[in-house]
Amino acid sequence: MIWTAQKKKHQTLLLFNIIFVVILCASSASATEISNYYETQGPSFSVEPPSRIEFMNTVGNTVNCIAHGNPVPNIQWLDKENNPITSISKVRHILANSSLHFPPFAAEEFRQDVHWSVYRCIASNSMGSIISRDVIVKAVVYQHYEPEVQNPGGFIGSNVLIKCNIPSFVKEYVTVTSWLQEPNFNIYPSLEGDGKNHMLPTGELLIYNITKNDSQKIYRCRTHHKLTQDSIVSSNAGKIQLTEMRELVPPIMNDKTVALTSRVGDPLVLACVAYANPKPTYRWHTTRSSTEESMQHMLATGRAKIKDGTLIISAVSKTDNGLFFCTVTNSEGSETLEVELSVSSPLTASVQPRVQTVNLGHTADLICSTSGFPKNTSIMV
Question: So where are the chain's domains?
Answer without folding.
Answer: 42-142, 143-244, 247-347
